[in-house]
C-alpha cells in the first residue's frame, strides 16, 4: 500500500501537517515508531516531545501525508496511547529527511509519564547470551521495558531530565541510541556495564562489602542463608528473604511491625508460580504482561511456603521478576521464591 501510494504521489500537490498528540506518548517508544513510519512513507519533517505530549510535522506529497496519518495509530508501539490528535496545516518548508529532534520548550500541560515496565523478552535474551555485552547485567533495558516513572525528574521525558543524566553514554550505547533500526533508539534509560550504574552491596552500617558480580554472588549467599536483604529497585527499596523458611519471614514481620497482613512472593519463573498456586490462562497472562502485577491465586497444598507468609489465608500473592536485578538474584540460587515487600514502614504505601 505504501509503495503504490508513493508511485502515484509524484503527480500530486505537496502538503505539510502538524500533529499535536496528547496521551501516553513519552517513554513508550513513540518517537522511534513515528520516525520509522514517516521514513516508510517517504516523508520529511520531525517528531519531538512537547509540553502537550508530542508534536509531529510531516511534509510530502498529499496522498503520502494522508496515508501516513490514516495508518499512524496502527504503527505505534503497544504501550503508547493516543487520547487526542490536533491537526494543523502549515506552509511548506522543503527540508529533506525525517528526524527526532530535541524536546520543544514550555511548561508541562498534558504530557504523561508511563509506569515502569517489566523486563522484556529481548532484553532477557541479551542477559542470557555470553557473547552479549549485557550478559548478566542487572540494569539492562530498551525502548520496550524498564524504568520510566521512577527515573523521571521533570518533563518532557528526555535523558537529561531523568536520573540517568549523570551516566554519559559510551560509544556503543550512543550508536544504539542514534540508530533508528535499533530497539534502543532513543531509549532514555539506556546503559551497559561500560557506562551505566554499578551494583554495590553494603552492610547495615554502610560499609562496602562487594561490587558488581561479587555483590550479586554475596547477596544470593545471604538470602540463601536466611538473611533479610534490602534491594533498591524501581520506585524505592524492597525487603527480601526466603519464602520457604519460617524464621526469616517471622523476623521480617517483626522488623516491619507487620503482624498479620500477607506478604507477596516473587518467584523464579512461571513454572514455579504454577507449583505454588493454581493459575488459569488469564492469571498467567497477567503475570507475564509488561505491567507484571502481583496476582492473587489459591495456594496449592504442597506449596513450599512458610506459614508466616500469609497467616490463615488460602491464597497467595505471586509475581515474576520485574527487573534485571531481580532476575540476577534468582540466577543459580538454591531458593525458588522470595518474600518481596516494600521497604516502607508498616501501613505506608
From TrEMBL:
It holds the Pfam family zf-HYPF. The active site is at 31, 49. The keyword Transferase applies. Its EC number is 3.6.1.7. Keywords: Hydrolase, Transferase. Residues 16-102 form the Acylphosphatase-like domain. GO terms for molecular function: acylphosphatase activity; carboxyl- or carbamoyltransferase activity; double-stranded RNA binding; zinc ion binding. SUPFAM superfamilies: Acylphosphatase/BLUF domain-like, YrdC/RibB. InterPro entries: Acylphosphatase-like_dom (IPR001792), Acylphosphatase-like_dom_sf (IPR036046), Carbamoyltrans_HypF-like (IPR051060), DHBP_synth_RibB-like_a/b_dom (IPR017945), Sua5-like_dom (IPR006070), Znf_HypF (IPR011125). Residues 213-349 form the YrdC-like domain. GO terms for biological process: protein maturation. PROSITE patterns: ACYLPHOSPHATASE_3, YRDC. It catalyses: an acyl phosphate + H2O = a carboxylate + phosphate + H(+). PANTHER family: CARBAMOYLTRANSFERASE (PTHR42959), CARBAMOYLTRANSFERASE HYPF (PTHR42959:SF1). This is acylphosphatase.
